[in-house]
Amino acid sequence: MLFNSQPFILGFLPVALGGYFLLGRLCGAVWALRWLVSASLFFYGWWNPPFVLLLAGSIIGNYLVGQRIFRLARGGNRAAARGWLIAGVAGDLGVLGWFKYAGFLASNVAAILDLQVQPLHVFLPLAISFFTFQQIMFLVDSFRDERSETGLLPYAAFVAFFPHLIAGPIVRPREILPQLAAPGIAVARSENLSAGLTIFLLGLAKKLVLADMFARFSDVGFGAAAHGASLTFFEAWYAALAYALQIYFDFSGYSDMAIGLARMLNVRFPLNFNSPYQACSISDFWRRWHITLSSFLRDYLYIPLGGNRRGEARRHLNLMLTMLLGGLWHGAAWSFVLWGALHGVFLVLHGAWRRKGLVLPRVMARVVTLLVVVVAWVPFRADGIPAAWAMLRGMGGLNGIALPRMVVDWLPPLALIARPVPVLLYLGAARTLSFPEVSACLLLGWLIVLALPHVHEMSERARNWALTGGFAFTVQALFFAPNVVPFLYFRF
């Protein structure tokens, strides 16, 4: 079930909220949590009911192992606790590896050995990357004694909690479990309902009005590259810039909707986006983009690998391994590995630049950071390495520069750098007016992300103005769009 669908907004959400607070009022918090777990499992099962058993089994298994680790660690038996931790994490990664990476590994091994084998066709359970990371954190925090004692019901509510179950944010047990165990968790609070609904609707507008609009521009260009077309300079750059806006508005919109839903249920999630395209360096970008994933990779991978404590060469290796695995987490494809490798290289180069005491002017630093981020999005989005290379060739001008003849007629000096053509085939709807229309939309999108504060920095008045301005477009997209477009991070 999608947050941006009519069944969720008009059906599931009112029933889930109503049952939660009604049971909280009549029967207490325990029954409200039971309702919340049941509603979350129904929400997950809407997509594919049999995988509810996988989710439920994962919750019960990890809870039992986590409790065993917790008690052994508190009892001073660290060696036994470490053994259970290794077994638990290995089990989680084994399940994740089978469903997400078995086919990828098998096909690559077969290609290397020149074997003819049938594809495995392993069906990928929705959200397995996210709920696996949640539970690994629970196991590690149990070993580190960084959580309090908890029962199965609050733990099940934490993992299956429908606002973050499908695509995050990746919240930590010590942040959420105490909130779910609070006595007044199921008491309706008007301030939380009002603030949560506003944030949810603003996130919905980001998705329906902005992300889905830019998807129509980026899909044309990347689709053409996947089919071997030679994109010209503006076609390639407009597709890349549109995708950078699409993924930002899509995932930050989802995160805002998740934060808003949790707030309505009296749970506060951490911020997941902090105007990342306004970053002044690549490390600053990763402190702002998908913050909960970045902090997970730092605390549960980079630091355990040694972080920056074992010399410069080891630090670079740890950075590269972290980013490579972060890229692979997004999907079983070499294009995601390449994306992670690019960001690893950017981080290493930035560290070396900073240690030499070199500093760019702030505006130039923002431009360079944004440029490398947009370029790196190309393999992330492209349908394979050849399609990514085709896009990069176009962005480099290797396929020439072209503009609609009408635009060149308006500004004759453009004829010095671009050849006039009737239309740009791989831009928007392939009409003469596509170029100015897409240009105006891109200008608006980049103005929003580069110059305006994010939703959580806005005053209440500014939020209300933004909500009013986008409400009609949101309603139109919700009820009259030809289809419901899934969130990009659902595939990860």
Please identify the structural class as seen in this structure: mainly alpha
As a percent range, the share of helical residues equals 55-70%
How many beta-strand segments? Answer: 2
How many domains? The number is 2
Q: Quick one: biggest sheet?
A: 2 strands, parallel
| Spatial ordering of strands, largest sheet | 1-2
Rounded average pLDDT: 91
Structural write-up:
The chain is mainly α and 492 residues long. It folds into two domains: 6-188, no CATH class; 194-491, no CATH class. Helix content is 69%, strand content 1%. It has 19 helices and two strands. It has helices spanning 6-26, 29-45, 51-74, 78-113, 128-144, 152-160, 162-165, 173-180, 190-226, 233-264, 282-288, 291-302, 312-330, 334-355, 362-381, 385-395, 405-410, 434-451, 460-480, and strands spanning 402-404, 419-421. The chain has a two-stranded parallel ribbon with strand order 1-2. The radius of gyration is 24 Å and the shape is globular.
Entry summary:
With about 500 residues, the chain is mainly α.
Descriptive keywords:
globular; 492 residues; 19 helices; mainly alpha; 2 strands
Describe the SSE topology.
Layout: H1 6-26, H2 29-45, H3 51-74, H4 78-113, H5 128-144, H6 152-160, H7 162-165, H8 173-180, H9 190-226, H10 233-264, H11 282-288, H12 291-302, H13 312-330, H14 334-355, H15 362-381, H16 385-395, E1 402-404, H17 405-410, E2 419-421, H18 434-451, H19 460-480
Parallel strand pairs: 1-2
